[in-house]
Amino acid sequence: MAKNKTQISETSNEVNDQIGKNRLKKSTKIVIGILIVIVFIISFVLGYVYIKLGKMNYSAIDKTDLEVNEDMYTEVADTVTKSEFENVKSVVFFGIDTKDVDGGYSGRSDTIVIASVNPKTKGISLVSIPRDTYVEIPGYGKDKINHAYAFGSEQLAIKTINSNFELNITEYITIDFVGLIHVINKLGGIQLNISEDEMKYINSGSSYNMTGNPVQKLTTSGLVNLSGEQALTHSRNRTIGNDFTRAGRQRMVLEALITKLSSLGVNGIMNVSDSILAEVKTNINVTEYIGILTSIISEKDTYLKNMTSNQVPGAEYSGGKMIGGVYYFVTDYARSKADFIKYIYGN
Length: 347
Known about the structure:
Elements: H1 5-53, E1 57-58, H2 72-76, H3 82-87, E2 89-96, E3 109-118, E4 123-128, E5 134-137, E6 141-144, H4 147-165, E7 172-176, H5 177-186, E8 190-194, H6 196-204, E9 222-226, H7 228-235, H8 243-263, H9 265-277, E10 281-282, H10 290-298, H11 300-305, E11 308-311, E12 319-323, E13 326-330, H12 333-345
Parallel strand pairs: 1-10, 2-7, 4-11
Antiparallel strand pairs: 2-3, 3-4, 5-6, 7-10, 8-9, 12-13
Helix pairs in contact: 5-7, 6-7, 7-8
């Protein structure tokens, strides 16, 4: 008996429904398959990161006791969205003279540099704080900012930075002199432009006493490749220029180090990561930086081109002053804070 039009229509709809269900099942399987692959990749990456973290000297600090400026966003909200604000990553870099060239120990932060990565501007900002800056160290009174590390390590040093300049720093990377030498030597040295006078100072330096490596002498000025020992001697030069010049040299060494690392590519960085991580102490949760690191690696030329170097407090509103027979760098804290915000958030 022949089917009527209604039966034919119903049969056709059933077939179409079945085809649709089959397609949906196939699409669902594909999506699930993709999700499984993504989860696998993420798990692999995170697993690899945690393996690397085992090579690093992780040392947590109490983030509830850093006097973080919780209202920082309200001060930049006119030019930065909440998302852009939260995507900016700032870390304070401490260079510590725990192993001095004379074998002594002071524990002061010889170098203080706030390094910030801003995905909005695709830039890296390096801001050094002069070690003689006159600040209030919580619990210890007025003193030089580099003494805060000697009194209370990273915890007190970051708290001092935040409380005096109303910042929101919570993460750090610390390396001592010998560690910096090892990192630079592991990378095959760094390239810097140096003057003839700076070359003579480097050649007279004694940083090789810290490692026992054979002494190398520079034979020319201009663009040269510096060993770790030579780079450390150069960054600690107190005789050519003033303390601002010296801080500038320290930022240039850090810039050259970042440039050298970026030139290695992903595989090259992974090859040297173990030896580099072993030389630093930090409280950074590396897994939180995977996204921004991916962005930097994929657009490293842009980030390097937009790398800036500055000093805060600025010399135009600060100056040296003898207090109780001791030299201090006295500044206007409000103007200093405005400069920090400008360099970190691009305001």
